[in-house]
């Protein structure tokens, strides 16, 4: 059998109970066109639960033997809008306890997921670092770490987070190294701050970048023989 919940109104103007004459009323029901306070309507023992928490509202309603819908008239929209529920206090307490238990469980699950993501992200960064050093064996180890961490930062949209970067595509890895050299080892940023157009600034610093990359490609014996060619890929 379908349940029909009482409807409680938050009046927009001052009203008094038609039975006990108390007022002004914060909330009331309407019987035969007359305002009746919650005490006279046998709803005074219920507590108000404002709308907004869907899980808490659902659980409190399910736990409560008696509950009522609270509405207020919106003059601009010319309609009644739900404000919340009136429920039994004990039912609300049980619902809050259940939601709290869920909150703790969700927090533990989020922590486990964060740990798994951290391990996975660390693996991505380490793999990228290893590939950078393979392509540029003369690069200082700490610089390779710095580039790998920067390029694979979660949510950055940088090379290390792209499909090509995760696949350790040679062009993508080289692009990450090239970008680092551009910003760290050349006056590129200073040129931009002086108003030099980006493409002109890149042209100016290109020789310096190539010099650094050639030096890093050189192996332990000062030769870059056998090193993969620079694809010339540029980061966006």
Structure classification: alpha+beta
What is the oligomeric state here? single chain
Q: Largest sheet, if any?
A: 4 strands, mixed
The 3D shape can be described as: elongated
Question: How do the strands of the widest beta sheet line up side by side?
Answer: 1-5-6-4
Any overview of this molecule?
This protein is of the alpha+beta class. The protein has helices at 54-63, 89-135, 141-151, 163-166, 170-184, 188-193, 198-217; strands at residues 7-9, 28-31, 34-37, 47-50, 68-74, 79-87. The strands form 2 sheets. Strands 1-5-6-4 form a 4-stranded mixed sheet. Strands 2-3 form a two-stranded antiparallel sheet. The longest helix has 47 residues, at 89-135. The chain is elongated and about 95 Å long.
Keywords:
disordered C terminus; four-stranded mixed beta sheet; 236 residues; 7 helices; alpha+beta; single chain; elongated
Detail the topology: elements first, then pairings.
Layout: E1 7-9, E2 28-31, E3 34-37, E4 47-50, H1 54-63, E5 68-74, E6 79-87, H2 89-135, H3 141-151, H4 163-166, H5 170-184, H6 188-193, H7 198-217
Helix pairs in contact: 1-2, 2-3, 2-5, 5-7
């Amino acid at each position: 059998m379908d349940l029909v919940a009482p409807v409680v109104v938050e009046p927009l103007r001052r009203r008094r109970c038609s039975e006990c004459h108390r007022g002004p009323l914060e909330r009331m029901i309407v019987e035969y066109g007359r305002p009746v306070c919650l005490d006279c309507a046998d709803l005074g023992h219920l507590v108000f639960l404002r709308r907004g928490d869907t899980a808490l509202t659902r659980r409190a309603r399910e736990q409560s033997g008696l509950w009522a819908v609270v509405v207020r008239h919106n003059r601009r929209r010319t309609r009644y809008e739900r404000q919340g529920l009136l429920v039994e206090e004990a039912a609300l307490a049980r619902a809050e306890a259940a939601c709290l238990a869920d909150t703790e469980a969700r927090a533990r699950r989020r922590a486990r997921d964060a740990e798994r993501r951290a391990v996975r992200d660390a693996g991505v960064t380490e793999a990228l670092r290893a590939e950078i050093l393979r392509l540029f064996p003369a690069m200082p180890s700490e610089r390779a770490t710095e580039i790998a961490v920067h390029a694979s930062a979660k949510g950055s949209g940088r090379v290390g987070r792209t499909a090509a970067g995760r696949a350790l595509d040679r062009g993508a890895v080289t692009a990450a190294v090239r970008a680092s050299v551009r910003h760290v080892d050349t006056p590129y940023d200073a040129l931009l701050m002086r108003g030099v157009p980006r493409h002109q600034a890149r042209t100016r610093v290109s020789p310096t970048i190539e010099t650094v990359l050639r030096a890093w490609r050189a192996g332990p014996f000062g030769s870059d023989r056998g090193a993969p060619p620079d694809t010339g890929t540029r980061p966006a």
